[in-house]
Design goal:
This protein has eleven helices and 14 strands. The protein has about 300 residues and is an alpha/beta fold. Helix 8 packs across helix 11 and helix 9 runs antiparallel to helix 10. The chain is globular and about 75 Å long. About 35% of the residues are buried.
Length: about 300
Amino acid sequence: MTVIDVRGLSKRYGQFTAVDDITFSVHPGEVFGFLGPNGVGKTSTIRILTGLSRATEGSCRVFGEEMSPDNRRIRGRIGVVFEEPNLYARLSGWENLQFFATLYGAERRKITDLMEEFQLAETGKKPVANYSKGMKQRLLICRALLSDPDLLVLDEPTSGLDLASVELIRSRIQSFAKVGKTVFMSTHSLEEADELCGRVAFLNHGKIITEGDPAALKLRYGQEYVQFDLIPIVPLAAFWDGIGALQPLKIEQEGRVVSVLVDLTGETLGRDVDRLRRVGRILRVHSQEASLREVFKSVLDAD
């Protein structure tokens, strides 16, 4: 059984279509990335998925049941973290969690364990108003985990956070999925999606424009490169003329070392290597696969 099954989903606000006839599914134990720039329908989809809003058209089934604001049983199996830190600022971190633990029926020990796991134990008695953005986000994830959910829905979980908070949150996402639970996350960070997600969907103008495994998408839409790091062995004018003749994708220089990026799949790769060896001493050669950022640019340009 799929955890999330969306079919022909649309959401309109007056004449504006935020979500336009999208279809996708998410399976148990999967980390699914919902990617795209601001204003393309990610948050509107999440609001429908978590029962905070109704779809205009189509179906959104979670754990086999149609999701709606009235479906409290399914909503109780979902932990949600929105981008905005909707916490009680005058209460301490501990008091925030205690309030929601009472609603969820969670034990006091659960709060202690989560505060320690997310490195908030020492600041737990301080008002949330004094917390950094990273601390607030970690507290929000603690709150989402209090009910021991089967599905974790995250809206930009690491946006604008310090490196320590980012690493802690990403590690927790991975451990959550490893025990067979499911994560649905939107993110601006394509590097984060590449690291965490087993599948991703790219959105633009409310539509899903491509979907799949990140590695497969990079092979389908991306361009593989090979990078040569070398030192000139001929006069600089001749060296740069030789480099320019390759029509490289990118050139970078650090000290005496020049890095040249060329298309790994190009028919002239062998001749390019010979040209480089005539003008420079090659120190290192390594291949690079396309990034999700390049995939997204490619599919946006084609949309």
